[in-house]
């Protein structure tokens, strides 16, 4: 019976298997969200026990709706202390403008369209992720299990909520797949959309710089034609400029040179007050805020060492140099600019290629336990970060 089922599964088209995994895991996540919504009390965005559509569009979803309907302010809000307050400039236009375009074309409800974009992009991301994992791991079973982990990951509910992460993840997995396949020309189309969906241009530029250096150093065993050298070098500069484009647009629109960075800093003010943005200091500030000095700073150093060790572990090495370079580059970017708090879990989502490393072991027991733990962490993330408890200070 089991062998017959295995033969039938192998004869099923790869995309159908991915779709089945996607649908089953989304049903599970939907059930979890509905149960949590049924216990949700009144909050700043909804009444008590909100329906799924309303509940999927709280937190940053509300900011994306503001951008979709009203665009961006030309005058920055100023707090009572004279600092820039939270405002729409912190949210990239790619996702809300796409929803606006669909709303203009169809006349549909914003919440329905926003959720629809997330779900469609999430499914498409799972399909491309399978192809990427099939390419780097070589085994169909490992690639499909990596997709399962992608679909039950602790922050995977974002793939069916009114957030830009689903759209960004699709663009990122396409971009990574193109780099792995050495189809650099298509990146000129993907990178700008990606850079205006989530702040990622500088991280991807660093990745391309590292990719270019590694390819040049290893050109004896991995031919690196002149055309590809030019393309990757130009792409790195192109991505870097796109990474700086949104702060420049905010400056031009508001007349304030630091409009974007001041806006981003407003979100960490409740923790450490208003401070200047100094690269590579926020994690140490956050560590000391959470745990006290010097324990917090020591923990950050330990986390950095652990991260480097993971990148050089045998399972992660199976992903190939390119995906490891991306994870490393994105880690450096987060260390440079991000303040660690409850949104950290969401901002780790672009490191999803690491899920492929967890799919390397073939032990059934290990895989079952990993899925159970992932679903449990998913419930925990929703309860801690998505559910709202009064004046909640744990945004997702």
UniProtKB/TrEMBL annotation:
<keyword id="KW-0472">Membrane</keyword>
<dbReference type="Pfam" id="PF04188">
    <property type="entry name" value="Mannosyl_trans2"/>
</dbReference>
<dbReference type="GO" id="GO:0006506">
    <property type="term" value="P:GPI anchor biosynthetic process"/>
</dbReference>
<comment type="pathway">
    <text>Glycolipid biosynthesis; glycosylphosphatidylinositol-anchor biosynthesis.</text>
</comment>
<dbReference type="GO" id="GO:0000009">
    <property type="term" value="F:alpha-1,6-mannosyltransferase activity"/>
</dbReference>
<keyword id="KW-0808">Transferase</keyword>
<keyword id="KW-0337">GPI-anchor biosynthesis</keyword>
<keyword id="KW-0812">Transmembrane</keyword>
<protein>
    <submittedName>
        <fullName>Uncharacterized protein</fullName>
    </submittedName>
</protein>
<dbReference type="GO" id="GO:0031501">
    <property type="term" value="C:mannosyltransferase complex"/>
</dbReference>
<keyword id="KW-1133">Transmembrane helix</keyword>
<keyword id="KW-0256">Endoplasmic reticulum</keyword>
<dbReference type="GO" id="GO:0016020">
    <property type="term" value="C:membrane"/>
</dbReference>
<keyword id="KW-0328">Glycosyltransferase</keyword>
<dbReference type="InterPro" id="IPR007315">
    <property type="entry name" value="PIG-V/Gpi18"/>
</dbReference>
<dbReference type="GO" id="GO:0004376">
    <property type="term" value="F:GPI mannosyltransferase activity"/>
</dbReference>
């Amino acid at each position: 019976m089991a062998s017959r089922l295995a033969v039938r599964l192998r004869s099923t088209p790869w995309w159908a298997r991915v779709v089945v995994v996607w649908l089953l895991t989304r049903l599970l996540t939907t059930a979890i969200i509905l149960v949590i919504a049924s216990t949700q009390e009144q909050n700043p965005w909804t009444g008590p026990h909100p329906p799924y559509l309303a509940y999927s569009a709280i937190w940053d979803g509300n900011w994306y709706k503001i951008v979709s309907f009203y665009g961006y302010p030309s005058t920055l809000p100023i707090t009572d202390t004279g600092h820039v307050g939270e405002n729409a400039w912190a949210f990239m236009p790619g996702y809300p403008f796409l929803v606006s375009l669909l709303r203009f074309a169809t006349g549909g409800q914003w919440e329905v369209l926003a959720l629809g974009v997330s779900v469609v992009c999430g499914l498409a991301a799972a399909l491309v992720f399978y192809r990427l994992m099939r390419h780097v791991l070589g085994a169909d079973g490992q690639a499909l299990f990596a997709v399962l982990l992608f679909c039950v990951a602790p922050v995977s509910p974002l793939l069916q909520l009114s957030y830009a992460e689903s759209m960004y993840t699709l663009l990122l997995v396409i971009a990574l797949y193109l780099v792995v396949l050495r189809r650099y020309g298509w990146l000129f189309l993907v990178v700008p959309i990606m850079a205006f969906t989530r702040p990622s241009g500088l991280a991807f530029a660093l990745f391309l710089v590292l990719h270019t250096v590694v390819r040049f150093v290893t050109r004896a065993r991995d031919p690196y034609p002149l055309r590809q050298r030019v393309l990757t070098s130009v792409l790195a500069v192109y991505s870097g400029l796109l990474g700086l484009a949104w702060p420049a647009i905010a400056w031009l629109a508001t007349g304030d040179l630091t409009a974007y960075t001041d806006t981003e800093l407003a979100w960490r003010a409740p923790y450490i007050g208003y401070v200047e943005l100094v690269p590579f200091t926020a994690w140490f500030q956050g560590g000391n805020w959470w745990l006290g000095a010097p324990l917090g700073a020591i923990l950050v150093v330990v986390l950095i060492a652990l991260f480097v060790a993971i990148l050089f572990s045998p399972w992660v090495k199976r992903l190939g140099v390119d995906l490891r370079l991306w994870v490393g580059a994105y880690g450096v970017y987060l260390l440079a600019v991000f303040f660690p708090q409850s949104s950290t879990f969401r901002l780790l989502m672009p490191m999803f290629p690491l899920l492929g490393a967890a799919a390397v072991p073939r032990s059934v027991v290990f895989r079952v336990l990993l899925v159970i733990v992932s679903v449990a962490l998913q419930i925990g993330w929703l309860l801690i970060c998505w559910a709202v408890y009064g004046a909640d200070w744990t945004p997702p």
